[in-house]
Batch of 4 targets.
Target 1
Amino acid sequence: MNDIVIQVKNLTKIYTMGMVEVHALDGVTFDIQRGEMVAIMGPSGSGKSTLMNLLGCLDRPTGGTYSLDGEEVSKLSDDQLAEIRNRKVGFVFQSFNLLPRQTSLANVELPMRYSGVGKERAARAKAALVSVGLADRINHRPAELSGGQQQRVAIARALVNNPAILMADEPTGNLDSKSGKEIIQLLLELNKKGTTVIIVTHDPTIAEQTRRIIRLRDGLIEGAAA
């Protein structure tokens, strides 16, 4: 079994703005092993958001190759990318992105609706909520939850389809320091159980708790700390 879950080779992304070409990524190469916890860091304009969009199958590169869980995804169509995203990538965003009128359970069930899961849906959603410590908040709506609890619902939703990778984009950005520490601790615990976690963060305190840091500057990898 291949232990490499992400394989990126000479990845480039060029945006055309009028007569100007902007090289957001300029030939990035790295691997991420299954079960790793990796931070992606860099100043504004370094290319980290572009890289996250490519790793999360939200966009396609201009050049180079990207394999996710053994599948080459660089040249897939929009529909194929959407299907891979739903199966292979769990997203956790700074702003939670929960449906305000739906319960925690209904929010976590959402990815399974898109992937065609039927009668198992409620049981799997409940199990995911239990796994993030929300057994007593299954029928609560987002307005009835704290910020930290809403982010736990978002993590449960990200995990419910058993993705190859969990991508967290500034997951503590909208939380107070206590809730933020609890969310990072939860991600660390999930990683110890085998989940591959990639965190995009500006916070060196968070990055230093991961196994490896990929640092970007001007579209290139500046250096990585093991």
Target 2
Amino acid sequence: MSAAEDRQPSGDASLRPHSRLSLLRSPWLRAVLVLVFVVVADQLSKHAVNASIVQGEERKFLPGVELVNTRNNGVAFGFLPGSHVAVTIVIGLALVALLVYFTLHSREKLIWLPTGMLLGGAIGNVADRVRDGAVTDFVKLPLGWPPFNVADMSITLGVLLLFLVIDHARAARRKPAQPS
């Protein structure tokens, strides 16, 4: 083997350790990992509720928190009930806007986290709609708050985190450069 051949990398470049490390740093991969975690947690929790609580039944869980087994035809927390076409259009437009924003700003610090949470929550609830025609909700809080699920929690927290990440990025861009 010549000296030039010794310097050539052997095998697939994608298998080199530094390539794998940079892949793990990818905001797209991180968003997908969060998405998968949310979908799995959401679907497993809904399966556990469906297997252990009869639809319409309520069980005390924590002080002020009950577990129920209900169906929701609307979006998160029961908004827009019964309008499947409107719900599908609203969800579709929101996801397209999110993906466009993420594509354009994927280098922003932590943008992958709310993106994965929002996409995972949406996919978790859409999976219910496709499979059952409605979303399974099971966490019921006091004071008339509508029942919700893990996907709804992920969507709500994802929206809040998205606003915080966007606000932080805008503030960082407005901050004048510090003299060296």
Target 3
Amino acid sequence: MSIAVIAGLGNPGAEHIRTRHNLGFWVVDALARESGATWRSEPRFQAEVARAEIAGRSLWLLKPLVYMNESGVAVGAFLHFHKLPDSALAAVHDDITLPLGRLKLTVRGSAGGHNGVASLLAHIGPHFVRVKLGIGGKSVPEMDLKDHVLGRLTAEEETVLTARLPEFLRGLRLLVAEGPQAAMNQLNQTTFPSTDNSNNEPSNG
């Protein structure tokens, strides 16, 4: 089935703005701005939703207003209400295993330690598309992983991610237009810019 919902994963509240774990929110917000979509609160889904025209197709954008580890509750309620299968969903989220600014699409697989993805797996099933956005690993081995993902982006990290934002949005448009397999074939084989790799080295530790 074609993508009908793009959900950005993150944590609600002003204290979580511009943290690494909220990269999914940031990118979906940018997608909404680009498409001229307007967010509205939907308490029955515990989410903000927007209707958007992307790549010539009408679909939903979604931001759960529950904490990351309950993402599947909100997304599941939305999919159930609209009678959509898990395969109609693309979940945009941060990923510590990828270099800062790297984009990768996958279908199925484990949660990889990501609480939001684990919640989606528990509540909706395994067939959704994961749109993984690299945030890099801990800067020092001794750092608690929670402190890393919930920490605010550094100025250098923001510079890299802002530069990569057009590529993130292009990837989402490609996913909508051509489907998961074609998008994976193109995006996952793209050589990551060497300038981004050099900028990312301090974040990987």
Target 4
Amino acid sequence: MLLEVRSLEVGYGGIRAVKGIDLEVRQGELVCLIGANGAGKSSTLRAICGLLPARAGSVRYGGSDTRGRSVHELPRAGLVMVPEGRGIFPQLTVAENLAMGAFARNDGEVGADLERQYQTFPRLKERHTQTAGTLSGGEQQMLAIGRALMARPKLLLLDEPSMGLAPQLVTKIFEIVRDISRKGVTILLVEQNARLALELAHRGYVMESGGIVLAGEAKGLLADAKVREAYLGEAA
């Protein structure tokens, strides 16, 4: 098991944002975590990668407990997140942002990986000298994903990659995510667009009010009456 989350609790002040959830991701899977805004999805991802402290429970990545490991150690171990809002460096160029994704690497293949990102995202190659803050929302999302891939992740956490994008760009981003998964990168995807996420994923979890209320194969969740009514906008 690449990722095991057990009885995880996360809070802000007196608010329990995540209430003792269990979640797991196997090597090579694409797993989605869906739910309404405020359900606790982003808090879960931030706790997994060490940006939020867990009040209780455990996170095991690659068989090892992540407690006691600093935030910067986890990307070096292959656990990489693309945060909600993209988190790019707006004053740096596209090329400089991509290079930042490889800051912890000391191998000789960074240049080859940079060219690989340009092949995956031709728009970034066209704009490689452009300041990242002047890119469109879709281009910034491509840059954020490309920067994460420069770290050669074993587990890629994607937090709301479609947020704020036009429908045609949402389709493009999901095509890119599917391609990344097919190339062998394990992915945990948090996404409000439940239909697209479940159509893409192998398995899924449904989160409500800080807890996991449903889990299973993605196809089964797509057919579930509660999911269809609550998250797909279909009448029961």
